[in-house]
Amino acid sequence: MAVKITDICINCGACIDECPVEAIVDEDDNPTGEEIYYVYADKCVECVGHHDEPACATACPTEGCIVWDEVGASPEHREDVSDEQRSNHEPVVE
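RESULT FIELD:
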């Protein structure tokens, strides 16, 4: 995974419209069954090659809703984000 949407998500849809690789789905398509939006780890590229920072987090009106997560099967990720930031699930944008 690259970024993760936390349970403070208000399901506003701002992040879905901003994702350049369509890695985000709404609560109806969340495979975990949670009523929050979901980021597919194997699709998320943390906006590498698209934006200076993850566009989903920039568009999100809920502070701290989108956090860094462990690098997984995603094809791209930001090299400037530390393992500590990821393991602590620090907010992408503050």
